[in-house]
Structures are given as structure tokens and as C-alpha cells.
Amino acid sequence: MKGTTTSSTAAIVERIQHSGAVEMIRDLGNPWTLAASIVVLFLLVRLSRRFGRRLAAEGILPALNRGARIVLRIVIAVLALWLLVVLVPTWMGPALPWLLLGVFVIVFWSARDLLPDLMAGLVLKFERRLHVGQRVQVAQVAGVVRSVGIRVTTIVDASGREVDVPNRAVLGDAVASEPGAWPTHEATVTLPRDVESERARRALCDAALASPWTPLEPDPVARRHGEIPTKWIVRVKLRDLRYGAQFDGELAERVEEILR
User: What pTM was computed for the model?
Assistant: First the structure.
């Protein structure tokens, strides 16, 4: 069986050599043009990635942006292979099909670890186990789902960092989710000791509701710290955990204005 496979591969390589396809591909390509095209397309991929970070996680425009990025990467791979054919010296022409076959085997072997993530991504898309805005804890990462891609699931943790979790880890682990579309955030505010409890609680809740980062419902909850009387903890729902730092800073300023 092994000898049959080897002879079949050799027959295919010999057919490619006699067909003149390699020479035709080499004649059609200019190395400088191909190299410049690869650089330009690579820069477009980078710009597309930066532009995608400013878009919503779901929608037509983000989907088109991701699709364009995939197409650009495929074109870059084709041009890189074309450039390889053009740069190979003429005297190595007979060995070029074997070289291309070796490149294909190396790429396939290197990408074997991606296949489980790709398959897991398709399963997650089909089952819809996760959705954007859902607060989850999976694979030792807790936060809000930013996006569910084909290869990784992006989660924004409590500090606002985006963590990419491989889809096979998401699919193979138990997912703990919090009901409700908005993630929960706790802020700490220090108030003067002489402020009455009811007045402090009302000022904290009003300041939290006045923030542009909080939804109208549910109402925030403010409570005094159990060990430090001057410290208060405000528990609210945020539109996105990335706004946690901005919310904390603006909350303290709004409370000071209300208590004046």
C-alpha cells in the first residue's frame, strides 16, 4: 500500500513536470510585484483587524470585515506560493513540484492543531451555547463574551482585557453563565464618615444611574463595607466591562457633586 501511494505521488509530480505548468507560472510572475502585493495585502489585514476592534461584535459590517480578512489571507498565501515558484532557480525546475509538495505537507502538519478549534467553533456556532454580552466563566477565564469566532472565543475580563480562549477549551469545559444580558460590576467609593446612610445610598444609586455606561434597568445596589465604615460598594450592570474604569472614576465625581 505504501509503495502504491509513493508511485502515485511520483506519477503526479512527473505529470506536472511535463505539462509545463511550473514554467508558465514562473513566466507570469514578477518577483518585485508579487512581494509588493504581499506587503500591501498584509497591511490591509492589519488595518482590517484594527477597524474590527471598533465595530460591534455582531452584525453585517463586522461579518463582512471578518470575511474580507479571510479572503485577504488566502490571497497572501497564494501570492507567497507564487513568489516561491518565481524565485526558485531554473536549474531546480525539475525538483520544484517536490518542493511544493513538501511545503503543502509542512503547512498541513503545522495546521493540524487548528482543526480541533475550527470544528469546535462550528459546533458552538450551531448550538449557540454562547452569545455576545453573556457573562461566563470558562477555562479559568471569567468575563463577558465579546465574540465567538471560528477559532477562538474572545472574553473581556473584569480588568477590561480581551482574552482569546481556544474554542476546543470552551467546548470541552463546563460553562458557568450569569443570567441577563448585562455584565455585573462592583465599584468602591469612599465617603465622609458624617454622611447619613440613607443619603449616601441615594447619592450612590443616582450617580450610578446617571452614568452613560449603565442600562436603565435593573437598579444599582449600594451597601456599606462591613469593616470600613467610610467605604461603600456599588453593584451595577454595565453595558460592557471595558467601561469599568471610566465608570469608577465618573461615579466618585458625581457622588461628590450630589453630596455638596
Answer: 0.45
